[in-house]
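Field notebook, page 102. I keep forgetting to write these up properly, so this time I am using the form the group agreed on. The chain and the ligand, zinc ion, are recorded exactly as supplied. Prediction of the bound pose follows.
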Amino acid sequence: MLELRPNCEFCDKDLPPESTEACICTYECTFCTSCVESLLQNVCPNCSGGFTARPVRPSTARRNNVSLASQPASTKRVLSKYSRQEIEEFCRAVKDVAPEMR
Ligand SMILES: [Zn+2]
Ligand SMILES: [Zn+2]
């Protein structure tokens, strides 16, 4: 199950579970759409994979015990250990390879 991390790992923007601006990679590294499109160019700086939009977890339980109340979002903020320069260099080297070919 997704952790639903609370922030962009680079710019620290809040990304609450209902946000439509949250992007995740296969390891659930989490960034905002702005960082993914401009800085990262669809390259995860941690694993080199591509991103997809993070699905919104429903807040209304239309099935028993299946909702944000039963499986709450993470509150543990995660910030990148890499500098902007390190990220730019890494992403520049990978961005021209399609995610399915990485
Ligand atoms: Zn961001
Ligand atoms: Zn990743």
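OBSERVATIONS:
- The helical segments are 33-40, 84-94.
- Residues 25, 27, 29, 44, 46-47, 49 surround zinc ion (ligand 2) (CB under 6 Å).
FOLLOW-UP: compare against the apo run.
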